[in-house]
Amino acid sequence: MKPGETLYQISLKNFGRYDRDVVSQLRERNPWLTNPDYIVSGRKILIPSTEVISSKVQHAAVQSTNAPPAEAEKP
After folding, report:
1. How buried is 18 (Cβ within 10 angstroms: 0-12 exposed, 13-18 middle, 19+ buried)?
2. Residue 18's domain spans which residues?
3. For residues 41 and 6, is the Cβ–Cβ distance under 8 A?
4. Which pLDDT value is given to residue 12?
5. Is it the case that residue 60 has pLDDT exceeding 80?
6. End-to-end CA, the chain
7. What pLDDT digit, counting tens, does each position of 12-37 carry?
8. Does the structure show a pLDDT above 80 at 59?
9. Which residues fall within 8 angstroms of residue 60, CB to CB, at 6 or more apart?
10. What is this structure's pTM?
11. Is 74 domain-assigned?
């Protein structure tokens, strides 16, 4: 990590994206990380493997495609 680097930059560099799933995984491993725009200089950040992030996204995609269709309102 470079001085002044944000969670956004770290996420893009390591995972190629910055979204709720990535931030959730990063915060799960680094509970002290409360402000994604400010990371204390010298603080180590535990980064999940790309497999963990990918499996979370695939799991979420499967859940959304298996969701029952919403019923249309009947007049």
Report:
1. middle
2. 7-52
3. no
4. 92
5. no
6. 58
7. 998 899 998 888 889 899 998 888 77
8. no
9. 21
10. 0.60
11. no
State the amino acid at position 70 in one-letter form.
A
Q: Is residue 12 part of a domain?
A: yes
5, 26, 52 from 10: Cα distances, Å: 7, 10, 16
> What is the number of structural domains in the chain?
1
CB atoms within 10 A of CB 52: 13
Q: Examine the pLDDT at 44 and tell me if it is beyond 80.
A: yes
Is residue 36 included in any domain, yes or no?
yes
Give the number of other Cβ atoms within 10 Å of residue 55's Cβ.
11
CA angle 44, 46, 47 (to 5 degrees): 130
pLDDT at residue 75 tops 80:
no
